[in-house]
Amino acid sequence: MIHLDPTRKHDFVFLFDVYDGNPNGDPDAGGMPRTDPETMQGLVTDVAIKRKIRNMVTLLGEGKPGYDIYVEAGVSLNSQHERAYTELGLTEGRAAEISAQQWMCQTFFDVRMFGAVMATGKKTAGRVRGPLQLTFSRSIDPVMPQEHGITRVTRTREDDNKETEMGGKNTIAYGLYRGTGHFSAPLAAKTGVTSEDLSMLWRALTLMFEHDRASGRAEITLRGLYIFTHADAFGTAPARTLTHMVKVERTIPDDLPIRDFTNYKITIDEKSIPNGVIFTRAVG
């Protein structure tokens, strides 16, 4: 399948929606869903999406060589570099750093795909520029973050005289989000990305919300994954030209609030796709 070819450039669009949940809380705003303050469109950071991909690869690639995760909760980054030095029997120095970097790319999926700055501590592995870049995801329409007061009939401490305790949950009623990604074949050749890695990436994207359920993220669903594959490593058309062919339009009047995916129509102008670009509708 052409979209599994790491020697070609790939640009893609993904759509996901959320019902009564918080797709990406902002710690600077008390955990409220992220928004653009000028337009009130919802935002989800690229870091949040990468975290979900990493978590999914951990599940899908368990026990498979080359599918360890570098940025892992509870594991220091320096200890990951030290694994390379221990495994290869390296000492400090530039030659050791180069060997360690190659080992890191071979061992960790996210180093191969996203890149990493591994230049801290004494045992370093340098800096790797990854072939895959993701944008912030932005909701199609404005969203309205809300804080819901929650009470629980229990106490945290024995000496607390309160009968109940208050808490809160931050949500939006509904939002359809759009994100884009870009895969560079020349950078992939430097990190060693394979067809199997691309297969893992697309599968992780399609499943990343299915295994990330929580009370505030119970109803997040991938609605579309649309991949544009170029004829060569450098691209046969501007990425923006291709990604803008995926159009999202309202099917209800502008004065009504969006509350369901059926309130939108998704169209792809496949007839206008330039020669040399192959379109794959992976989801949607």
Automatic annotation (TrEMBL):
In which domain of life is the source organism classified? Bacteria
Matches recorded under Pfam families: Cas_Cas7
What is a biological process (GO) this protein takes part in? maintenance of CRISPR repeat elements
Write down the NCBIfam families for this protein, in alphabetical order. cas_Csd2 (TIGR02589), cas_CT1132 (TIGR01595)
What name goes with this protein? Type I-C CRISPR-associated protein Cas7/Csd2
Tell me what organism the protein belongs to: Microbispora hainanensis
